[in-house]
Structures are given as C-alpha cells and as structure tokens.
Specification:
By secondary structure, this protein is α/β, with parallel strands linked by helices. The protein is about 25% helix and about 25% strand. It has three domains: about 1-105 and about 255-315, FAD/NAD(P)-binding domain, CATH 3.50.50.60; about 110-250, FAD/NAD(P)-binding domain (3-Layer(bba) Sandwich); about 330-414, no CATH class. It has seven helices and 24 strands. The mean pLDDT is about 95.
Length: about 425
C-alpha cells in the first residue's frame, strides 16, 4: 500500500481529495489532515457584515465533503520532514507518505503590525477575513452612527485580492440604503499604486471610486497602528485617522511551514508556476493559497490548478513528464453594490480585458462591465462551490487555461 497525504481540508485540499479518489489506483491510500471540523465558504465572509449572509449560511461539516475512500485525520500539523517523507502531528503521531500535497492555505496575522492587536481589536478595528471578524463587524455596523470608515490593505499578497475593494463598494451601498451615506466618509488605503494596478482595469473601472465618493490613499505601507488615537502610520510618516478601521492584515501561510523549512518569509511555499510541483522535493506538490505563485489567491484559481495538478500527480506516479500548463488563470466577480457586479478574467500573461465569459461572443457574462447578471453569477457561486467545486466536478464551459476567444486583448496596450 502506498500513501498520498493531503495537508489541509479547505477548498483546495477537499477538492483534490475528491479528484484523486476517482483516479488513484486502489493500491494507494488517501489521507487528508486538518484539525478543523467545520468547512467555511470563505467568499461569504464579505457579505456577513452587511447582513446578506448569516454564519449558518456559509458553514458545513468538513466530513460531508470528504470522499469515503479518503481517511480524514483531524489533528494539528507539527512539521513536515521532507528528507524522510514524514509528517509529525501535534498529538505525537507520525504519517509517512509517498506523495504529499500541501493545501493549508493562508490566514491573517494581525500581530505582524505593531499595535494592530489590543483592546481595540474587534471594537474599532475589524477584519472580515475570518468568520469571527465578519460577525463582529456586522454587529458594529448595525449600530454605528457614522464617521470616517477606512478600508485598508496591509500588504500583498492577500487572499481574494479584490475583496477589500468590494467591501468599500458594498459599504457605500449599505450606508446609502440606510440613508446615512452623508454621515460616512469612506477612504480606501492601499500599499499599491492605486485601487486598480492594471491599466485596462483602471481605464474601465477607475470612475467607480470617484462616482461613489470613495477617496484613495495609495502607496501606504503601514508601520504601526495607534488604537487609542485611532490612526495608522506608514514608514514615510504619513498618517490616516479613522473612526472605524476595516483592515486586511498581513496574510501568511501555516506555522508548520516555517517549522518545516519549506516556505518563504510569509510561509508561502516556492512552487513551480506551471506544474505545481514544489521546489523543495519532487514528491511534494502545492495548491491554492499555500503557494508563492504570482497568481491570485482565490477559489477559482485553486479550481483551475486542481484540474492540472490531478493530471500531474498521476503522471508523477506513473513516471511520466509533468505538464507545464497552469497559466495563472483566475476569474473573479467584483461586487459594486446595488445588485451589480463586475467580472474579470486574466492569467500570468494577460491582464483583465473586456469581452464575454464563458462562451466567446455569447457570454452570458460580460467582462469589465457592471451588470445585474454578474451579480447573480457571484451569488450563484455559493451553490457551485458546495456542489461542484470542492466535490471535484468539472464546471461546464469553464476551462483550466484562460481562453482567448471572445476577449479583446488589443486593450492591453491602454
């Protein structure tokens, strides 16, 4: 009996367990390790602060989605010994493997910024990248009477890169619906050059922030937070004051990655961007947010990676050359408020451009255009996630590699 072990039973790990359960030969045992018991639909965090979803709408038992063939081990991970193909668990047990897939994702690390944690955390400073943070923020917004709302990104990369911008757009609509938008100033603070870093996206979407009265503070690299005086300061001495701060803290990979000597300074694992094989050892593969790839950390990316990784794991086991075919493909809906959304589609080589998705010339979704249909697509994704994406089913008409047909790549010269 040979052993394939998957670390992490989130989006990518659960999806891979289902893919492999259908394809691996019977002489392979599949084990998946995650100490958690509840699976979270993480895109739903964005909607909890505004009352669109409640906690019970986005959580289900992890066991429900693990295939019968796979053994779920609900223990913490102490470290990986890559030289001896062994995993040490926090309960003292060990697991040996022939092939390892790392899918332990990323999490927020607010303690990385001086002053971010403290008595003000989840009082005047909130995150929405955790379920607890999103629920606490909903409670705050329900009673908040207005002031200066600052939506802030600490540093890149982050999970779901468009989510902070979506939060700002949804906040604008939320306060307008509550007839108190005139009592709220919204500022978007980012370490990047602007809210949109790609020229095409800026050309199509830059007006949205201005139209919604959202101020942008670019190139702000936070050094510290003063919770008592409600200010954030960057390394150049710039300060931004707030009444309510919604921040996306530093994102980091799992702690065991550092203990195992597998990751970079943020615990993301160096990974071949086309094959998804780790740089550490040939029998270790990495998928989803755990990688250091220059692709978005998003569920759609994990889905596209998964279809290619499945083939490469099978090829590795059979002694065949790996496919160097993951192109960084990502597509993301961007909620803009009032029942509308944008859709962007891009990869390593192409920035977001206009056109149609998923069918060329037909759509039914239009890229880089606000529409009610795109919003419906965003909301429908929850069903797709639970019933298709993490269960390892192919999503019709959506290919792992970015399709060029139906897209206007000439706009990339903008």
């Amino acid at each position: 009996m040979k052993d394939l072990v998957i670390l992490g039973a989130g989006t990518a790990g659960t999806m891979m367990s289902n893919h492999l359960a259908k394809r691996l030969a019977k002489d392979w045992r599949i084990r998946i390790v995650d100490q958690r018991k509840i699976h979270h639909y993480q895109p739903g965090y964005l909607f909890i602060p505004f009352g669109t979803y409640k906690e019970e709408d986005i959580v289900k038992p992890i066991k429900k989605f693990i295939p019968e063939r796979a053994e779920l081990i609900q223990e913490g991970i102490l470290k990986v010994d890559k030289d001896h193909d062994r995993i040490y668990l926090e309960n003292g047990e060990t697991l040996d493997y022939d092939v390892l897939i790392i899918a332990t994702g990323t999490d927020i690390a607010p303690d990385e910024i001086d002053g971010m944690m403290g008595p003000h955390w989840h009082q005047s400073v909130f995150d929405f990248y955790t379920l607890e943070g999103a629920v606490k923020l909903h409670e705050k917004l329900e009673t908040w009477e207005g002031g200066h709302l600052v939506v802030h990104i600490t540093e890149m990369p982050i999970k779901c890169p468009v989510a902070p911008l979506e939060f700002a757009f949804l906040a604008d609509a939320y306060f307008e619906q509550r007839k108190m938008r005139n009592k709220v100033k919204i500022t978007f603070v980012t370490p990047m050059d602007g809210a949109f870093t790609k020229p095409v996206a800026s050309a199509h979407l830059g007006h949205l922030l201005k139209d919604k009265g959202i101020e942008v503070v670019p190139n702000f690299n936070i050094m510290s937070l003063d919770g008592e005086n409600k200010t954030i300061m960057d390394y150049e001495g710039k300060e931004v004051s707030y009444d309510l701060l919604v921040t996306v803290p530093t994102n980091k990979g799992a702690d065991y990655v550092e203990r195992s000597g597998l990751g970079d300074e943020l615990n993301f694992i160096p990974t071949n961007k086309g094959t998804l094989q780790s740089n550490a050892k040939e029998n270790i593969f990495v998928i989803g947010d755990a990688t250091n790839l220059p692709a978005s950390k998003a569920g759609s990316v994990a889905h596209f990676e998964g279809e290619i990784l499945l083939e490469n794991v099978i090829r590795f086991i059979e002694g065949k050359e790996l496919m160097d075919e993951f192109d960084g493909h990502a597509n993301c809906f961007i909620e803009t408020g009032h029942g509308k959304a944008l859709l962007i589609d891009f990869n390593y080589h192409h920035q977001p451009v206009s056109g149609t998705f998923p069918l060329p010339g037909v759509g039914p979704l239009n890229l880089l255009k606000e529409s009610r249909m795109n919003h419906m697509g965003k909301m429908a994704f929850k069903w797709i996630y639970w019933n298709m994406l993490i269960t390892g089913k192919h999503i019709p008409f959506v290919s792992a590699k970015m399709q060029e047909a139906g897209k206007n790549f000439e706009e990339e010269t903008v």
